[in-house]
Structures
1.
Amino acid sequence: MKKKLFKAGVIGLGVGMHHFQALKNHPNCIVKKVYDFDKLKKFNFKKKFPNIDFVKNENEIFQDKEISIVSIASYDNFHYNQILKCIKNKKNIIVEKPICLNKKQLSSINSLLKKTNLKITSNMVLRTTDLFRQIKKKISNKKIISIEADYLWGRSYKLYQWRSQLKDYSVIHGCAIHVIDLVLWLLNKKPITVYVKGNNIGVNKKIFKKNSYVIILLKFSNNLIVKITANASSIYPHFHELKIFSKNSTIIHNLQGSYEIKKNKKIKKLFSKYPDKKNRLNIIHSFVDNLKNRYIRSIVNKKDIMNSMSISLAAEKSMKIGKEVKIKYEN
Ligand SMILES: NC(=O)c1ccc[n+]([C@@H]2O[C@H](COP(=O)([O-])OP(=O)(O)OC[C@H]3O[C@@H](n4cnc5c(N)ncnc54)[C@H](O)[C@@H]3O)[C@@H](O)[C@H]2O)c1
């Protein structure tokens, strides 16, 4: 049997169950403690995993000296303080997006982490999708003319759960950030400004008081414009649509399939996997591998997180003030 090197704790057992499974399945990791403040979650978890310590309070995880990785999958408003507790107690951090809710918090996480050797990752799952990996390779040498990327959530009921009760909840941080990260990763370039318009036509405004639909325009230094939408309330399956126009070809990924259209107008089908749920655990596996061996790259690192969060926060500001905003990146 391989030696278990890392002990982990998980907080929040919604999408956190996937964090739990990924950590549990890693050959060098064991999950020592989990916590969720929901009694039903506790009941169901204990039934399924009687040997894992379901603690009474998150501090039992932060203060456990044996635990070196904490996975945070709580509601958005808890992430910042839980990250601070991780840093204070020397824990490496896996944290769901958005990792925090304002620029001051982001800068403070960045500067606090710089004073440590601790590592952080976030669950930007689209990077692990086989189809998007194939598309990244295809466009690497191409001159891109424009990109359109849509996050079609197709799960509007989720807006009426805890998300409707958070003062700072945003579909930019909750949905669009996934395609923002996808575009940064595909292009390996950062935009300089962002301009956003949003509305809430599609929702019950008495319950969900924020915008549920946003259009985000990212402008790059070479004049490239990328259009991103987050559409949280329409009738549609959960889907990430993509159109990439380059000088020599166009790539389309939509409900009808995934295609490359060549200059001679010939259409070639792309067969790589989408969605690719199995590969999603690679974010957490690569993070643990990187802790073990720094030459193995973590799929999502601190810089990636700081970049997508800086854009997402600037986008939120643009939507509030109705103007194009220059993006301030963290160093
Ligand atoms: N990366 C992704 O693809 C992805 C997908 C879904 C959700 N998320 C993110 O994950 C987070 C959780 O969302 P979800 O969809 O799993 O919600 P959820 O409601 O399905 O589950 C959240 C769970 O966490 C528990 N919880 C919340 N705050 C807690 C706290 N402070 N301490 C203990 N338990 C706590 C709740 O009781 C609940 O069981 C959000 O930040 C969301 O943006 C990311």
2.
Amino acid sequence: MEINITFSCQCGAFIDEAVYCDGPNVLAKSNAASLREYWKTLICDGCGKDYDTHILCTLSDTNVRIPNVVDLNFDVHDLFEEEDVAAEIESTHQLDVYRKVSTDVVSLLRHPYPQEVQATLNNMLFAQVVTAVEAYLSSSFISTVMNDDALIRRLIETDPELAKRQFSLKEIFTQWEGLKLLVARYLKDLIFHDLKKIKPMYLSVLDIDFGDVAWLFQAILIRHDCVHRNGFDKDGNQQEIKSETIIELVKQCTHLVADTENQLIARQET
Ligand SMILES: [Zn+2]
């Protein structure tokens, strides 16, 4: 199962992480006997502080404990939110969506807005560009892999988390469709919460190398501040993102998207 955990760090940053665990012992004869405990470490992006997270799962309940955290919230997701994931597998509009959003961002930047709204607008636009490229990369990966059984197998074999999951032969032979949804859902959440993982995945599963995308990971960090701090730093100063910086980001993202799209098309043709 997947548990989405959110809380505020003492440094002011907001932590929003998905953790995975195998849940309770579903074969247990009583609720008490079904208890399984898991320990995970969550790390604050803002200050690097470690949070020891204790997860307790029984058949009737899931509980999360983190010492010294006051606003802890968590949501337990069943791994089978089928409609959502099935739509992602079938989607073919990733490129259209990216194109629409990136052209809209450029139009908005060119529009003459009053000077006093520019910093807030640029904040939103910067975050939107990062979200657009992220959505393209994750959705294209999911639909490409999930529509090809050989690629699913390659993913399961090469991904460290999925390899740990150890699918039984019985699951593979009798529950292939269900297993596919489970893998797709895992991918969606994993990538959503940590885009860094997508680069090695494209390489190991699809043989697509993004090259040096340090600029993208840097942009993701800046987006984090745009979203979680409204673009203000710890001292309350609004950080201005220049319009040229956003145009440059759009160019780099479009280049990455076009390159990836060409390689995905080339794959299909071979
Ligand atoms: Zn922190």
